[in-house]
Structure formats: C-alpha cells, structure tokens
C-alpha cells in the first residue's frame, strides 16, 4: 500500500492561452483509492486524461510504475479509463466489448473467453448477456460492462471519470458499494473524479480537492471534513456553520469568543486551528451534527445561541433545523439524528448549544 504507483510532479496544462492545471504534484500509492473533487471546470478531467495519456501535460513530469510517461501512448500505459458517458462499442456484443483489450494484446482465444467470464462474475453480470448488445442492457449494466472492459486487462490503475453520475440514485448506491468491494478485492489503484462529495467520502482512502486548476487540500476524508484547508473547502464538503469570533493568543493556546453575544472565552487546542487562521479574527466551523437544541441547561463548556426555528426538514434518518439567530446573518443549520420527536414547530424559540472546543478555527477570509 505504501509504494507509489503514480507520481505527478508539478504538472501544468495549458489549452492555448488558458491554464487549466497549475503545479499538480500528487503521489498515489499502489492499491490506493483517491477521489478528485472540486467545482466544475477545476481541471479534474484534464488531470485524469493526462494520467491516461489522452492529453499531454504542458510542463511537469509524470511517472507511473516508476516509468516516465511523456513518450508512452495511452494503450501502452498501465491505466484504463471509464467515462461518464458510456464508451461501449454499440455494434459489438458484450463479450466482444469486454474482450476487446485482450484481442489488441493478442491474448489467445481460450484465455480471453475465460477472463471475460471471470469479469462477468466479478461484475455480477449474467453470462447470457455475453451475446447481447449494449442497447439491450440497462444503464447500470452497461456501466458494469464498461468497468469489466477496463479491468479485464488487469491495469495497475483504474481511472474513473464520474462513472455513476448518469445513473439513478438507487443504481448509483449499489454500484458504489460494488466499486468499493471491487477495489478491496483487486488491489488496483482507483482514481475517481466525482462531483458527489458523499461518494468521495464513502469510497476514497484520500480526497484531493482541486480549485481553479490547483490542489488546495489532500487528505483522508475525516480530515477534509473536520479540518478543511479553508472556508471554501469547508463549504464545499458538506453543510456547515461559520461563527465569527475574535481570537486572542494566551499562554495556554488560542482563546476565542463570539463577535456577537457574551459567551465566556473558549480555549482551542493546536489541532483545532487551521494553519491559514491568523490575526485577531476568525470563523469557527461548526458542523450541523455538532449542535443540539437544548431542552435543559447546557453542559459545561458549551456555548449557547438563542434563536427561532426558521424551517425544518425531515430527512428520514435525521431532521434538519434552520435556526435564525442574532449571532449569524444566515440561519444556523443543525441536524439531529432520527425523526423530530420533540415536535419543535417552525417559529418556536430555541436555544442551540455546541462545544466550541470541539470546533475548528478558520481564517475569516473567503
Ligand atoms: N480541449 C480543451 N480545449 C480548451 N479548453 C479545455 C479543453 N478541455 C478542458 N478545457 C477547459 O479546461 C478547464 C478544466 O476542464 P476539465 O474538464 O478538466 O474540468 P473538470 O473539473 O473536469 O470539470 P467538470 O466537473 O465540469 O467535468 C475548463 O475551463 C475547460 O473549459
């Protein structure tokens, strides 16, 4: 798991005068599952295409399996790519589609047949589909055939460009689960481009957040969620509340206090402070699940904010409240597990409690 399979060194990409990627340095380990996330146009697909050999970097170096890739064409790389829009051959059967890379590699017919059937089993595709054409299969089945075709030549790296975005929610969930299982069983490195942050958190060992053609954060999902690099990443990865605070240095660490309201100051440990936070002001990141609507006295160390329920949504497994407060210009978002058993009506006055020492301090710039 620790050996690198992909080593991208300061890769940049220009399309004419437009710079799509700047200084992308990323090492992906053997067997690792990496998700590339970021807003539309941030360069995720461009980077994937450079890894696959469908685009050339304008500068920088790319090593895959310790080999420099600038002169290695796509077909000769240990990478295979699965696209968002299916790229199956419509006039070839499922068997011909999956065996295509093996034909190119001149694998003997008997071995081809065996490996294709092995992939059908792995992808939970019935063998009777072998003689079917792609149009005769459902969207999810077609995407599984595309995965089978990409994996049949046993690539070291599977590149996935939003392979599930065209599928309906239920199919997507089942394919996500299959993908995770497949990754565990095969030991192949997966690089997944996705817009779906929940998908990235569910599947990836590490998430790489890109903005404007640059990597802004690379880390395990929990770190990206709990210790985002800046306000943009925090807001991009899940819903969040940003409470403006004043910051003072003390002998015991940083002390914070809300700009509005008269709470006692709270001390933050060094692991609760973003490296980009500095000066005497900041934003305290409070995730919706970290707040609670108090029914009694707050527990020691809690800060409380008074407000009124502006809206509430029942999501099935949880209930979300949006609470208007004096402390924030936008509603405080709070999520509690389960149904709204307390039956707190919209318009009701409430007291929101949370532990500042468990939150994370960001700089106050966007
Ligand atoms: N062949 C091309 N010629 C010119 N510009 C391009 C080309 N391919 C991509 N771009 C531009 O480069 C930028 C990055 O595109 P890319 O497709 O890599 O982004 P992305 O993060 O994958 O976006 P999305 O999430 O919308 O798919 C975009 O502004 C895009 O318009």
From TrEMBL:
<dbReference type="InterPro" id="IPR050093">
    <property type="entry name" value="ABC_SmlMolc_Importer"/>
</dbReference>
<dbReference type="GO" id="GO:0005524">
    <property type="term" value="F:ATP binding"/>
</dbReference>
<dbReference type="InterPro" id="IPR013611">
    <property type="entry name" value="Transp-assoc_OB_typ2"/>
</dbReference>
<keyword id="KW-0547">Nucleotide-binding</keyword>
<dbReference type="Pfam" id="PF00005">
    <property type="entry name" value="ABC_tran"/>
</dbReference>
<dbReference type="InterPro" id="IPR003439">
    <property type="entry name" value="ABC_transporter-like_ATP-bd"/>
</dbReference>
<dbReference type="InterPro" id="IPR003593">
    <property type="entry name" value="AAA+_ATPase"/>
</dbReference>
<keyword id="KW-0067">ATP-binding</keyword>
<comment type="similarity">
    <text>Belongs to the ABC transporter superfamily.</text>
</comment>
<protein>
    <submittedName>
        <fullName>ABC transporter ATP-binding protein</fullName>
    </submittedName>
</protein>
<dbReference type="Pfam" id="PF08402">
    <property type="entry name" value="TOBE_2"/>
</dbReference>
<keyword id="KW-0813">Transport</keyword>
<dbReference type="InterPro" id="IPR008995">
    <property type="entry name" value="Mo/tungstate-bd_C_term_dom"/>
</dbReference>
<feature type="domain" description="ABC transporter">
    <location>
        <begin position="6"/>
        <end position="237"/>
    </location>
</feature>
<dbReference type="InterPro" id="IPR027417">
    <property type="entry name" value="P-loop_NTPase"/>
</dbReference>
<dbReference type="InterPro" id="IPR017871">
    <property type="entry name" value="ABC_transporter-like_CS"/>
</dbReference>
């Amino acid at each position: 798991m620790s050996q690198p399979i992909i080593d991208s060194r300061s890769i940049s990409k220009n399309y004419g005068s437009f710079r799509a990627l700047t200084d992308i340095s990323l090492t992906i380990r053997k067997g690792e599952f990496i998700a590339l996330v970021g807003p539309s146009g941030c360069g995720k697909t461009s980077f994937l295409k450079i890894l696959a050999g469908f685009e050339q970097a304008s500068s920088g170096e790319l090593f895959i399996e310790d080999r420099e890739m600038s002169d290695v064409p796509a077909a000769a790389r240990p990478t295979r790519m699965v696209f968002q829009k299916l790229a199956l051959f419509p006039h070839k059967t499922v068997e011909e589609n999956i065996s295509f890379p093996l034909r190119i590699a001149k694998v003997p017919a008997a071995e081809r047949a065996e490996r294709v059937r092995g992939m059908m089993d792995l992808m939970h595709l019935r063998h009777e589909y072998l003689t079917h054409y792609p149009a005769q299969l459902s969207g999810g089945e077609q995407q599984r055939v595309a995965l089978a075709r990409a994996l049949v030549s046993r690539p070291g790296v599977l590149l996935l460009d939003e392979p599930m975005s065209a599928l309906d929610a239920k199919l997507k969930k089942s394919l996500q689960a299959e993908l995770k299982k497949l990754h565990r069983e095969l030991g192949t490195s997966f690089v997944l481009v996705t817009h779906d942050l929940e998908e990235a958190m569910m599947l990836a060992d590490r998430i790489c957040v890109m903005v404007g053609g640059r990597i802004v954060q690379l880390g395990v999902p929990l770190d990206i969620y709990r210790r985002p690099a800046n306000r943009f990443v925090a807001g991009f990865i899940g819903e969040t509340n940003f409470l403006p605070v004043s910051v003072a240095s003390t002998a015991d660490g940083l002390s914070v206090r809300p700009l509005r309201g008269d709470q006692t100051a709270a001390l933050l440990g060094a692991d609760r402070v973003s490296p980009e936070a500095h000066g005497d002001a900041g934003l305290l990141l409070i995730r919706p699940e970290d707040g609670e609507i108090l029914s009694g006295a707050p527990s020691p160390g809690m800060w409380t904010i008074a407000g009124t329920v502006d809206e509430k949504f029942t999501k099935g497994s949880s209930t979300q409240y949006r609470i208007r407060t004096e402390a924030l210009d936008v509603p405080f978002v709070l999520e509690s597990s389960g149904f709204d058993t307390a039956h707190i009506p919209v318009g009701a006055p409430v007291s929101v409690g949370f532990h500042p020492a468990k939150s994370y301090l960001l700089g106050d710039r966007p």
